[in-house]
Amino acid sequence: MDLRRLKSDLMITGIIIISLLGMIPLIHIFLTVAWRGINVIARDPLGVLFKEPPIPGSEELGGIGPHVLGSLILISIASLIGIPISILSAIYTVEGMSKRLGPLTSLLVRIMIEFPTIVIGLSVYGAVLLIEEFINDLVKIFGLGGHIYIPRFNPITGAIALAIVMIPYVYTQSEDGFKNIPHHIREAVYSLGFSRIRASIVLSSYVKSALLSGIMIGVSKILSETAPLLFTAFGNDHYVTRFPDVFLNPIGSMTLWIYKAGLSPYDNWIDLAWAAAFILLMIILVLFVISRYIIYKR
Amino acid sequence: MKNIENSYVLRIKDLNVWIGDRHVLKNINLDIPRNTVFTIMGPSGSGKSTLLRTINRIIELYQNVKISGEIYLENIKINDQNTRPENVRRLIGMVFQIPNPLPHLSIYDNVALGPKYNKLVKSKKELDELVKWALERAYLWDEVKDRLHEPARVLSGGQQQRLCIARALAMKPKILLMDEPTSNLDPVGSSKIEELMIELKKIVTIILVTHYPFQASRVSDYVAFIYDGQIIETGPAEEIFTRPKNPLTEKFVTGRIG
Amino acid sequence: MAKDLFYLFSLNNILIMILIFVILFVLIISSTPLFEKGFSKVVYVLTSSIWDPVYDRYGIFFAIGGSLVVALIAIIIALILSISTAVFIVEISPSKIRAPLEMMVDLGVAVPSVVYGLWGLFILTPFLRDHVMKPLIDSIPVLKNFLGSYSPSGTSIFTAGVLLGIMIYPFATSIIREAIKLIPFDIKEALYSLGLTKWEVIKNEIFYIRNSILAGLLLAFGRAVGETVAVAMVVGNIVNPEFYKIFTPGYTIASLLANQFLNATGIMIPILYFAALILFSIGFIVNIIVALYLHRSFHR
Question: Is residue C281 part of a domain?
Fold first, then answer.
């Protein structure tokens, strides 16, 4: 009898020790990023946020300005593409009550959520090549001469890759939101004689907290992504300001910078990688807290 | 004197239970005679389920619970720090309001689980016999003997409840706590369980909780009427149902409160 | 019923399906130059470990093996950590620290993988080199034959596996934690009423939610196989036919793509697309299993 008790206490102690062991790295990551990041940023807060990275070998600190701006641009465009598609298709799946298309979307999106993101980047890159090839074939057929070149590395391809990453997160959250609408609310809305589009708008405002938290999750997800940008946005250490060039040239992101600078041999680049990691973590923390608050209020 | 002491299997002295700020049980004193069906009846919310859960210390799974008073099982105090709750629960089995067989285990494993962990048997053969014995006592053996290894969830509600009784019996407990065991069953299932109780008191003392006075009158030897956390009246069933002393008790047994 | 404009919403669903189709289509079309070389060439690419741009001969077995070994190490670490942590949070920890603990684990899910990579490169890699690999090899030299000798920097398949384990365990923890919370209270009461000790109850609860654990494990495995930058930062990125010697640097499929794709010419391009197709298929199969089989049996 006592042996059983001893075993129970031993195993429980073991569980506690292993759990604490697992949490040490997590805490260590948070603290390291905060400590190193803050120390770098404190040296020149505005410079870090707005300056361009220093050229290799130089002693100055510089900044990650183009990468902060790049992340901002990429996420804005990706959200513009991804959010409407996700929410509208979720509405169709739930409110349209289709027998095939809805459930099929539901299933495929849940599979899509786990696609390796590097494969998505690779596919977008490959798609650009295939489209270019197709256009040039047409050009040849019609005897127009010349060669059309589509730039592979630019904000648009990057944003498309990110939008593909984002869609399943926003979609699943929205779908769950609409599915959880109580029956009497839905009946009330439809009994007012609304068209389905109007009814969907009314119901959307009813589940706006679910939609918002879905958007938060989606945005923080693509903010964290690196792999799908490797072959699409590519990264760029300089500001591109002139109008059409912005959309035709490679563009940076904070994650791409951390990846490149972290692996570089230059100390000031590595410092800036920690700074970028800290800024990224702070933004994600804010998004996390907001989405928690939304869920909590619901 | 010693004889009287021994005729009670469970004695509760000055028991008070608070859940959060709520004083759920107030100064409970009860002596439960051996090999009887002792019924604790009262309207819902009167604290009778809490009383059962205090006896086998399942109450400790809830939060913000404070307990004072003493509970003796065969003259051994069972509600203090020196006694492990699992040792108490091994000796005091429990059947719950909603039949709760472990749905992922087979019928056989549901019954075998307790004896196996509590090392009540030495061999597989002994375990087989114990499982059979318990299922027979619960009037379930004939219905399930050909499908012992099917999952428990295939059984009907009444069968599931009898499986839970068998599961508790398999540990050869001194006391069987039954918390409204028929409230989720159809009339046929309910009457089977009631018959079973009368049969089972030969081998175990049953403490039944119910809010149906008529069920209490059908199966009980002794009755305690509990209202708002207090024992209003207790005594032999016949007396309580025919000559209740307290007007509240009378109102309850005639179905005017409940 | 008259068809209203609402049906236009379905275009979005169709677009999502087209996207999924296009991703697959591009991968297949872009690897066709390899398929056109015949079946034996495909088998050669799959089964040999060679990366020789001079003679234009490539076989990605080392990367497939590297991916699997890294994911396996990660899964073992994540499994042990996540079950313990989930049980600790739900069943053991005092209720006051429960919410902060859950918050921290959930935040661990949200940390960008490249940040894990950065930490892995500068903190974990030297730590594992100095405090695990070096003492182990120094004290038991014969282990060198099985584990290989570590590189001066400390990057290795082992390092990548450990980092990946740390990275996916918050995710696995949150799945298992939710499953434990969903165990009906009457099941818990039933277990306790049989006189089981706390550990015995926990053991039975883990058995009760085994399908959820399996699902969490499979999904975590899918993530581990597909993870790119964190692994690419610490795995060493060296063609290593002996990928099972875990202390040596190596490659995974994803890190191979990240490092080689933009330098690729000729037949190397379709081979890398083919590698991506394999990566895609592993994830796809894992998710089909979870979506079709396990999600259904959760709710029994």
Answer: yes
Q: How many CB atoms lie within 10 A of CB B184?
A: 16
Go through the domains of chain B in sequence order and give each one's CATH number: 34-57+88-253 (3.40.50.300)
Domain that holds residue A263: 64-297
Mark which residues 68-107 of B lie under 8 Å from A by CB. 84, 86-87
Q: Which domain holds residue C213?
A: 63-298
Q: What is the ipTM of this complex?
A: 0.95
**Chain A environment of B86 (Cβ under 8 Å):** 4-5
Count how many domains chain C has. 1
Q: pTM for this one? A: 0.89
How many CB pairs (< 8 A) connect A and C? 253
Considering only CB atoms, C233 lies closest to which of A116, A120, A263, namely A263
Is residue C46 in some structural domain? no
Q: Name the residue in chain B with its Cα closest to that of C96.
A: B63
Q: Please name the residues between 180 and 219 in chain C that touch chain A, using a CB distance below 8 Å.
A: 197-200, 202, 219
Q: Is residue C251 part of a domain?
A: yes
The pLDDT of residue C54: 87
Closest of A90, A84, A237, A82 to residue A162, by C-alpha: A82
**In order along chain A (298 residues), what is the average pLDDT of each group of 10 residues?**
85 96 96 97 95 91 95 97 96 88 91 91 96 92 86 96 97 94 85 83 90 95 96 94 88 97 95 97 94 83
Give the C-alpha separation, A203 to A91, whole Å.
9
> CATH code at A100?
1.10.3720.10
The yes-or-no verdict on residue C88 having pLDDT over 50 is yes
**Each residue of C169-224: pLDDT tens digit?**
999 999 999 999 999 999 999 999 998 999 999 999 999 999 889 988 998 999 99
In this structure, what CATH number is given to the domain that contains residue C269? Answer: 1.10.3720.10
> CB–CB of A142/A133 below 8 Å?
no
CA-to-CA separations, B256 to B43, B130, B239, C31, in angstroms, rounded: 11, 45, 19, 82
Cα distances from B228 to residues A260, B22, B196, C158, in angstroms, run 71, 11, 30, 64
Query: Is A12 within a domain?
Result: no
Name the closest residue on chain A to residue B85, using Cα atoms: A5
Q: Which residue of C has its CA nearest to A109?
A: C16
The mean pLDDT value of chain A amounts to 93
Q: A-B interface: how many C-beta pairs under 8 angstroms? A: 6
Residue C258: φ, ψ to 5°: -60, -35
Q: Is B96 in Cβ contact with C186 (below 8 Å)? A: yes
